[in-house]
Design a protein that fits this description.
Elements: E1 11-14, H1 21-28, H2 32-37, E2 52-55, E3 71-78, E4 84-90, E5 96-107, E6 113-119, E7 124-125, E8 130-136, E9 146-155, E10 162-167, E11 170-172, E12 182-187, E13 197-204, E14 210-218, E15 224-229, E16 239-247
């Protein structure tokens, strides 16, 4: 009679420059959710070079070939300095979509193709939500003609210490004129068991195009934030939307971490 099987020992991985959680999950054949569950308190948008992650044994492989059915609008581009292009990613559901990345594509009259990648600021897009994404577009290139989905994963683990929700308690100074900055005041309701937060705020014109985008981090316990949205165009800002991403408190996070999911 054979004895009980030994529990596989998790492997260790040291974060390298350019890594993202989704890249690491694909490399080791585990799901993003399993990787986050094995590393509680590690923020997917505050990875640090040299940080050690536990790689779970026998995790479910990511479903890279069947991304969530997302809908894209845009691109909308603005001749600012530097130039900016934006889009909107809608998730009709039924589940969340994680680590969403889009590709802005342009083609010259001679057939040459250029592309720039843009990551959604939030770790995942909840079902039923539509969120903005924006990039800087090089001056020497023609404007992009389309935006397509480059990467997305199903989000099926609600207990990994990350929670995204839209914010309804916000105030802003009405419709701006001639591209004037708009001050937005946001009230935060602390999510139970979670601490630090990333706030994403976007402005839209009457046609529903994204014309401004700003992000700001809030420390645990902070209840109010004031941001300034600076439009990329002279269009009137007709609507302001906001989302907050709560993360479980951790001593591993770097106080100087960038608001991105890729390590530089």
């Amino acid at each position: 009679m054979s004895g009980p099987s030994a529990t596989p020992t998790p492997r260790q991985y040291t974060v390298q420059a350019g890594d993202t959680l989704s890249d690491i999950a694909l490399r080791f054949g585990v799901s993003v959710e399993a990787l986050m569950l094995a590393n509680p308190g590690v923020s997917p948008r505050a990875l640090r070079v040299g940080q050690t992650l536990s790689i779970p044994a026998g995790g479910a492989p990511p479903v890279a070939g069947t991304p969530p059915p997302l809908e894209l609008r845009g691109p909308w581009c603005y001749d600012t300095s530097p130039r900016v292009c934006a889009a909107e990613v809608a998730n009709p559901g039924p589940a969340g979509a994680a680590f969403v990345q889009v590709r802005f594509e342009a083609q010259s009259p001679s057939g040459e193709t250029w592309a720039e990648l843009g990551d959604v600021d939030l770790t995942y897009i909840p079902a039923g939500e539509a969120v903005p994404v924006a990039i800087l577009w090089p001056e020497e290139r023609p404007w992009p003609q389309r935006v397509v989905l480059a990467r997305a994963y199903p989000w099926t683990a609600p207990d990994v210490g990350v929670r995204v929700q839209p914010i309804t308690d916000l105030a802003w100074a009405g419709q701006n004129r001639s591209g004037e900055p708009v001050q937005v005041r946001v009230q935060l309701s602390q999510a139970e068991g979670l601490g630090d937060a990333l706030l994403v705020v976007a402005g839209y014109d009457r046609q529903g195009r994204v014309i401004a985008l700003a992000t700001q981090r809030a420390e645990a316990g902070q209840r109010e934030l004031v941001l300034v949205l600076i439009p990329w165009t002279d269009a009137t800002m007709h609507r302001v939307r906001a989302w907050v991403e709560w993360t479980r408190p951790t001593s591993h996070a770097s106080p100087n971490a960038r608001d991105t999911n890729r390590v530089s």
